[in-house]
Structures
1.
Amino acid sequence: ALTAGLGGMGGAQPLAATMAGVACLGVEIDPTRIEKRIKTRYVDERIDDLDQALAAVQASIAAGKPRSIAMCANAADVYPELVRRGITPDLVTEQTAAHDPLNGYIPLGLTVETALGAFRHEG
């Protein structure tokens, strides 16, 4: 499974995946949200390198053991890279707050800090 956004409602996606017996890669740009999900045991571990994260997911699948991996990155960067590599997950969910352009969506190429700074200067 592949999901984006681990804050709010999206935080339960990796837990739901492991409860269903599958491996999950959760992409989240805000590291504080990942820390919260690890602390509450909704996510098993954090791996920020895409190659290593994908290897961990593949190892989980091969072992038949559910596992959730959080990756601190922008889904807008990661998803196109997965397509470029020809990777097609069995299940994809998207739980980012893209409906909230001022607070919930970080555009391609921006960090959380850069995006928040840009939004503060506009207002």
2.
Amino acid sequence: MTIQQALALSFGLPVVVIAVYTLFIDGLFSHHKPSKASMSGRRKLSGTYRWKDRLWELNCGILGLLLSQGLAFVVTQILKNACGKPRPDLIARCDPDPNARDMIPGLSNYTICRQTDKLILKDGFRSWPSGSLTL
């Protein structure tokens, strides 16, 4: 899945659902009765809420979506940094020196790696949880 598809699925689709609900469905089918009774017995498109009220609800819905996605991203990134497990390709990322000796037999650290880019090594330990995109 590409990043564009992921954004469309995780942000675009909920925005459309929020917009349809707040602008059309919530105003028409609210439980509050309009102050003036309709002569024809049908509810008009104006419904109980004014467009100003519907736009306010749309604003709150989109801000809530942005807040929830932002918090999910931040919490996921914090968990990945705090307790990330090694990815399966960590040894390939590290490119260990074949002549390196372990300080304690069987245990090594990042000093045996020939990889000079620390971000590539750090990303090798960010395999859990995989709930969001890594940058």
3.
Amino acid sequence: MALVFSLLASAQDRVAHNSIQEIVWSDRSLEIVGTEKPSFTSFQLTDPPRLVIDIAEAVLGDAPKSLNIREAHVVSMQATSFGSSSGSIARIVLTFDADVESDLVRRD
């Protein structure tokens, strides 16, 4: 399973925060599309197995807040944002039905 970050906006479309516009599951990959290059951290949790991706200075725009996936050991995706101003964080959580390895890739 791969996680791909894509950039949606051009230079003239810049905004103060990265606005997450799309979260799409396709071909065993989750693609997260935002308006800025992402600055993110990730960590894994257990019981149930989960991958948490925190995108700094980001908010959820038009992206879905949840997806039922049920493919490649991925059960679901939940998205939320919290904080305010420069402290805002968009959090994406993938829940798995088994321990899996994942690759995070930033595509410009």
4.
Amino acid sequence: MSYDMKIAEGYFHSHIHFLLTLLDIKILSELETNKGRIDSVIESENYIHIIEFKQNDSSLAIDQIKEKEYYQRFFTSKKKIILVGVAVDARERNIIDWQMQTYNKLV
């Protein structure tokens, strides 16, 4: 891809999706819910990772997952739900921060 290409969240999102697919990791992107679209979901034997990408602030990504309740789609699963916020910097063309939080289902 060209260095002059317009860089936005989707740029990083697509690269991570591609890389994980090459590594044979099951990743779903742009998964629709009743309140929006989840950027990415990685599901393994014991975990569901809900991933949101934002420019410059990983806490905004976590806030969006919580605000739009993206985890609701997985309430019937017995797997542990992990919320992942990834901050990207278009100027630096790099991931600059990330954070993870465990979502505790109410039982």
